[in-house]
Amino acid sequence: MVHVIDRDNKHLYGDELEQHYRLRHRIYVDERRWEQLRRPDGREVDQFDTEEAVYLLDLDHGRVIGGTRLVPTLKPHLMADVFPFLANVEGIQRGADIVEWTRIFVVPDRRGPGSKTLHTVLAAMLEYCLRQDYRAITVVMETWWLPRFLELGWEVRPLGLPADIDGMNCVGTMISVTEEAWRRTLAFKGIQSPVIEVPKAPIVPTRRRLYA
Ligand code: COA
Question: Whose CA is nearest to atom 10 of ligand 1?
Fold first, then answer.
């Protein structure tokens, strides 16, 4: 099951969050060679790991096997602050009902066609966004994701032209949050809903907290 961790309940997930920062370093720096993220303490933490960040972590008996991060688009975020040229056609999309998605990963031994972990995390993200009344997700992504998302029946709108970033072909896109996309993501791997674990502490909807 995927656990939603935000500033209100993160004190209950100290070990899992720490595992996830270290996994991010192993995966993005050691495996994918994103050298600019290398840190001497072996924890991949960037300027968007703030109090505003929400982590969705897939836990198997306390072990983090996959995860991702969401950040409000009304606050500093990757597309607006680092890669705004990826939205050079439609412009940066900001709103109380739009979140930015970054840092999706699955641990190596849970990857591949025989595993449901990736699609469990993707479905959890849509499930969480539906519960929060988010209408869209923006993402800076490598273009190889595009056919995979379209195969899941997701509505994906490019915000700009693809560009090369450190040898990776990347594009800024906006994904519609729909019940249809959530259901088709579950169905793709025969995953039972719900995929989000009842939180250890109540989640205050981010929109309500930010704009109350
Ligand atoms: N470049 C090109 N294609 C890639 C890729 C990469 N770096 N990583 C995965 N893919 C492809 C796979 O080959 C597969 O293609 P297929 O559908 O033609 O078989 C497809 O993406 C999905 O693979 P799947 O086996 O369903 O997913 P997975 O369990 O491997 O999970 C990731 C996908 C990306 C989450 C996982 O490989 C991972 O954690 N990678 C490292 C972290 C990362 O790169 N995250 C994305 C950027 S934030």
Answer: 144
- Closest by CA position to 179, among listed 137, 129, 104: 129
Q: Which two tokens stand for residue 187?
A: 């169905």
24/173 Cα distance (integer angstroms): 23
Distance 144 CA to ligand 1 centre (A): 9
pLDDT digits (tens, 9 = 90+) for 48-61: 999 999 999 999 99
Task: For a ligand 1 pocket test, name from 23, 30, 106, 142 the mutation site with the most ligand atoms within 8 angstroms of its C-beta.
Answer: 106
Domains present along the chain, CATH in parentheses: 2-188 (3.40.630.30)
Q: Which two tokens stand for residue 130?
A: 């539906």
Q: Is 165 exposed, middle or buried (0-12, 13-18, 19+ CB in 10 A)?
A: middle
d(CA 200, CA 185): 25
Distance 164 CA to ligand 1 centre (A): 18
| Distance in Å, CA 24 to ligand 1 centroid | 15
Q: Which pLDDT value is given to residue 211?
A: 37
Residue 196 is given by DSSP the state: B
Q: Look up residue 150 and give its DSSP letter.
A: H
CB contact at 8 A, 71 and 99: yes
